[in-house]
Design goal:
By secondary structure, the chain is α/β, with parallel strands linked by helices. Helices cover 42% and strands 14% of the residues.
């Protein structure tokens, strides 16, 4: 008689859409989803080349998997077309609504230039929240029509510790990050029994952080990474494959909804 696999098989056969899945946390979630036996992993990004590269990397890392890996572009930075772009993504990813998803993970983000409050204007405030906040609401709106009904299905959003422990000149971004927890609780009520949760991530050694560091030399970048690690309680800077575990938990625990999970090496409390 074979061993039971009650816990590691919870995502077996699942169809998972990862918006922001071509790099960073989203890509790590895609890897983990394949390893947990997902039947289909669909990634989305604003950049078609990055999508194709990510798909090639996933297929190369898991050459014997039966998981179907696909990707579709979706630009979340164009205010006039953001909702139609999201609708088009779901239409394509579900084959015009014929193949429902079991889980939707939203890790999309863009690079925001910090500004002192004396320098911000309405346009800056609006642009700061376009991808991380406004797009998240619209994704939830359209996701509701493309998820298998029931508590086994989930939406997982992404926030950051800037909502708990603001950094200098992060005024608008901190406000949006903090508001994602409230949005999550509201969506959990509105979209029940589908579950909605949010992962609050700390600083991670990803391409996104390196882009934030800009034109710094390799030595300067390493110095910045070391400084972040020193300030943490764990003494190390987190990696995307660490935080990906939080998303897997959000998908697998059918009793979890309306909750924020924090993975930040303790940065939010020091």
């Amino acid at each position: 008689m074979p061993d039971q696999h009650k816990y590691i098989s919870k995502l077996a056969g699942a169809r998972i859409l990862i918006i922001g899945g071509s790099s960073g946390i989203g890509f790590a979630v895609a890897e983990a989803s394949i390893e947990y036996g997902a039947a289909a992993v669909v990634i989305s990004s604003s950049n078609t080349n990055r999508i194709n590269t990510a798909i090639s990397q996933l297929r190369g890392s898991y050459p014997t998997t039966n998981c179907q890996v696909a990707g579709f572009p979706c630009d979340l930075k164009q205010e006039d077309s953001i909702e139609s772009n999201i609708a088009t993504l779901f239409d394509a990813a579900t084959l015009k609504g014929t193949q429902m998803f079991d889980h939707i993970v939203f890790t999309a983000g863009d690079q925001v230039v910090p500004k002192h409050v004396s320098q911000v204007n309405f346009e800056f405030i609006k642009e700061t929240g376009l991808v991380r906040f406004f797009a998240a609401i619209l994704v939830a709106k359209h996701a509701a029509k493309h998820l298998t009904p029931g508590p086994a299905s989930s939406i997982t959003l992404t926030s950051g510790i800037g909502g708990h422990r603001p950094l200098l000149n992060w005024n608008a971004l901190s406000a949006y990050l903090a508001s994602l927890s409230g949005l999550t609780r509201s969506l959990a009520i509105e979209l029940k029994p589908v579950r909605v949760n949010v992962v609050c991530a700390g600083p991670l050694d990803t391409d996104g952080l390196h882009r934030y560091l800009g034109d710094a030399s390799l030595q300067e970048r390493q110095k910045s990474l070391d400084a972040i690690a020193t300030k943490s309680l764990t003494g190390v800077i987190g990696k995307a494959d660490d935080v990906a575990e939080a998303y897997m938990y959000c998908m697998k625990d059918h009793n979890l909804t309306g909750t924020a999970i924090t993975s930040d090496s303790g940065h939010s409390i020091v």
